[in-house]
Specification:
Layout lengths: L3 H12 L4 H11 L6 E6 L4 H14 L3 E5 L9 H4 L7 E5 L6 H10 L3 E5 L17 E5 L8 H5 L3 E3 L12 H17 L9 H15 L3 H14 L1
Parallel strand pairs: 1-2, 1-5, 2-3, 4-5, 4-6
Helix pairs in contact: 1-8, 3-7
């Protein structure tokens, strides 16, 4: 494992293989990325809808997605994500037959409040959900919604007000509406929602590795140059 200083040297080296326009785009995106808000998908089996959620996360600046696999493994639909996964950090929870509470425990230890999305609960709306504490928005399946355990162990609920006959939006639309409203509210608030400089460097290194062709060869060359110093 390389030190922080060595990682920074590697990043500076790899940036030499990135065009000026791409470096500018990376900087612009990083300055609007957040981990103050994260998304949790519980046991989603419709890959096209779950993949659309990932695309919305990238487009609204949400960096991390937590995927709980109880009965249903999550398969990315490449036609829907349109490459967005290489810009995101995905964490899967699938070691046990039921992983929801394990995921909640991990998120709470990171300081998140667990907010369950449900049209049936008398909860917050996107306009009045408190933003001061980091938020993990939890989404369930189209057919049955969140598990009883997810609902009973949530710290709060959020719903999207509706005025029609249909019971609810589908998951991809719900996520897009919530993410758009909440990230805009965050950016207009005084909450410290941005990434730290260390986090930005870590992601920048990750993105360089994901976009530079034959990056393994380039990194080996960097290592050889470092050893010769």
């Amino acid at each position: 494992m390389i030190s922080t200083a060595e990682q920074r040297d590697l990043l500076n080296y790899l940036l030499g293989f990135i065009t000026d326009n791409r470096r500018k785009k990376f900087t612009e995106v990083l300055n609007r990325r957040t981990r103050h808000l994260t998304i949790v998908l519980e046991d989603i089996y419709q890959s096209q809808n779950a993949s659309a959620v990932l695309r919305s996360c990238d487009l609204t600046g949400v960096q991390d997605v937590h995927i709980i696999e109880n009965k249903n493994p999550y398969d990315i639909n490449p036609d829907v994500v349109v490459g967005s996964t290489k810009w995101l950090n995905l964490t899967k929870y699938n070691e046990n037959s039921f992983n929801t509470l394990d995921a909640f425990d991990v998120l709470r230890k990171k300081g998140y409040q667990i907010i369950a999305t449900s049209p049936h609960e008398d909860g917050y709306t996107p306009e009045n959900l408190p933003l001061e504490k980091p938020i993990a928005l939890v989404f369930g399946t189209e057919k049955t919604g969140l598990s009883p355990e997810a609902l009973s162990h949530a710290d709060g609920f959020i719903r999207i007000p509706m005025v029609g006959f249909t019971e609810s939006y589908n998951i991809s639309v719900s996520a897009a509406l919530l993410l758009y409203t909440l990230t805009n509210r965050l950016r207009e608030s005084e909450v410290d929602w941005q990434l730290s400089e260390v986090e930005k460097d870590e992601l920048l290194l990750q993105w360089c590795r994901n976009t530079i062709q034959r990056v393994e060869v380039i990194e080996r060359d960097f290592e050889e140059r470092r050893k010769q110093k």
